[in-house]
Amino acid sequence: MQELTGKEVEVRTMDVSYRGILVEIGERDVHLQAETAWIVVPLEKVVEIRAV
């Protein structure tokens, strides 16, 4: 997954999908930079991360 750092990705959870530039996959969270805000998604809720 680290090869996606700095690229535009879609992060899916069971409820919602987020799109943005992948900044970091940490031990607890996935950090994205979207057009207007930073998005932090708890890693335990992530179902899929894929390049867009």
- How would the global form be characterised? globular
Strand composition percent = over 45%
How would a textbook summarize the main sheet? 5 strands, antiparallel
CATH architecture classification? Roll
Order of helices and strands: EEEEE
Q: Which structural category do the helix and sheet elements fall into?
A: mainly beta
Instruction: Give me the Rg, rounded.
Output: 10 Å
Unreliable parts: none
Distance between the termini: 14 Å
Kindly state the number of beta strands.
5
Nearest-integer average pLDDT: 96
Count of spatially separate domains: 1
Biggest sheet: strand arrangement: 4-3-2-1-5
Task: Write a compact overview of the structure shown.
By secondary structure, the chain is mostly beta strands.
Question: What would you say this structure looks like, in words?
Answer:
- The chain is built from no helices and five strands.
- With 52 residues, the chain is mostly beta strands.
- It has a single domain, classed as SH3 type barrels, CATH 2.30.30.100.
- Strands 4-3-2-1-5 form a five-stranded antiparallel sheet, with no helix packed on it.
- The model has no long low-confidence stretch (mean pLDDT 96).
SSE blueprint:
Elements: E1 8-13, E2 17-25, E3 29-33, E4 38-42, E5 46-51
Antiparallel strand pairs: 1-2, 1-5, 2-3, 3-4
Notable traits:
mainly beta; 52 residues; 5 strands; five-stranded antiparallel β-sheet; SH3 type barrels
